[in-house]
Amino acid sequence: MAILSTLLAVSEPTGFWPTIIRAFDAVTNNYVLAIIFLTVVIRLIWGIIDTYSKYNQQKMNAVQQKMQPELEKLKAKYEKTPEILNQKQNEVYRRYYGKSYYTGCLVMLIVMALNLVIFFTLFSGLNTMASFNIDTSYNNLKFSYANTLNVIDDYFDGNYQDAEKLAYFEDYQSLGIVIEAQEDGSQTISLVKYQRDGEDFVLDQDGNKVVELVLNTTEYKTDFGYIDSSTSTVDGVTTTENKAITSNDYIITLINTIFPSYGEGEEEGSKEIILIEDYEQLFDEEGNALTDEDGNLVYQDLYLSTAIQEVSLNYVVDIYDLNKDSFLWIENYWLADSPTIQSIMSYDNLVSQVGSENIETGEETIYNAFMLDLQDARGRVNGYYILPILCVLVSTLSIVLNNLYTKRKSKKEGKEPVKQQGAAKWMQIIVPVMLGIFALFYNSVFAIYMLTGQVVSTIILPLQLLIVDKLIGRKKKKEESQVTVDYSRKF
């Protein structure tokens, strides 16, 4: 695998969550597994806080059930005088709840605030990591492609008419790229010819193609930039001008050298070096053989640029397959699980992901030189809305289970269940929808975090409710024992 570019446009994210996620990734060697394990740890720890919150909510619900009949009477009595109704209801709240009402509300607000802080800070951290990893992956492919062009250009050494060297590209399917690590930590890239036995490649005991001939070897570069110095003498005065040539400048020069460009009115292929005439028969979209005006079959010549692009793209595809960030059905988990998004993003999407301020001059030219072909070779839809749907369903299931528990508990105690009203009622609808929207429009890693969190929360919910029941039961026994003691003292 070729080393990554050291000149990444997007800096590696730092901060609390990226640091923790990288620590988990160092163990799992997979970002998705890292986020799943991290989420399990977060949810188990959060489960303790959430259990106390549920206990507090149950206490408030119990009080609510006790004062519900009184509130209903007040509502009927003062229905036409809202101000008096509000005053009377507040008096009931103070009488039943006392200071515990405000304490309970404060606890709920703190828990909600902590939950939102974790949600949005992790969301921000994962978005930053997504931009960084998308940029890293693109740069790895870009420099892999650039290095194949560079080793081939170095092979021809400026003479693209060398018949002996051109002959090797007539059988370009036998050519390949080999990367080797050196003792000093650097890497070399080689243009090689593989050994064939008839139509098949000869493989070694590890299943790798056997190299018959190394055509050229050069240093694998992650920075093609250099300072171009030009000297001129005017009236006996010599001046030296230094001009910085960026990596993109050099790569674009390579592309323009190997792949001729055509202006308006210029005939396609007129600037090309032909390796084999009438190399391939042409067919239309329906598979019918194309013919010229005289009814003769139409063939296409094999150009050197075509052979070079095939050799380069084969290596780029290998690098893509080796390093792609896929998980189950998701081709690129740094993008959303959606059939409307391509796994290999367009140039405009790349710019939006990494930020236009991080795009260098000439990037679109380089992108179009190889990424469009990579899209044809490996591009597909990135997902099928599975994560957004699961996030909504699991979140809804958790809410339904919690409501069923409340109803059964109230029925068992012979009390009318407290009906969710106002904001609490709407939150049961808003939360699943919000999770679905986040999963739909943002990276799949964050969607996996939300889904894992909901699954863990749903699994531990029965245990939490059991603990809450035990605590409530102990509280009731304690209150009953105090009542008995007080009663006995009166006599």
Notable traits:
59% helix; alpha+beta; 491 residues; two-stranded antiparallel ribbon; elongated
Task: Describe the protein in words.
With 491 residues, this protein is of the alpha+beta class. Helix content is 59%, strand content 12%. The chain contains twelve helices and nine strands. The chain has helices at 16-28, 31-77, 82-97, 100-156, 163-170, 247-258, 304-323, 347-354, 363-378, 386-412, 422-441, 444-490; strands at residues 175-181, 187-194, 196-197, 200-201, 211-219, 226-234, 237-245, 274-281, 299-303. The strands form four sheets. A three-stranded antiparallel β-sheet has the order 1-2-5, with helices on one face. The protein has a two-stranded antiparallel ribbon with strand order 3-4. The radius of gyration is 34 Å and the shape is elongated. Residues 1-7 have low confidence and may be disordered.
Briefly characterize the structure.
The chain is α+β, with helices and mostly antiparallel strands. The protein is built from twelve helices and nine strands.
Topology:
Layout: H1 16-28, H2 31-77, H3 82-97, H4 100-156, H5 163-170, E1 175-181, E2 187-194, E3 196-197, E4 200-201, E5 211-219, E6 226-234, E7 237-245, H6 247-258, E8 274-281, E9 299-303, H7 304-323, H8 347-354, H9 363-378, H10 386-412, H11 422-441, H12 444-490
Antiparallel strand pairs: 1-2, 2-5, 3-4, 6-7, 8-9
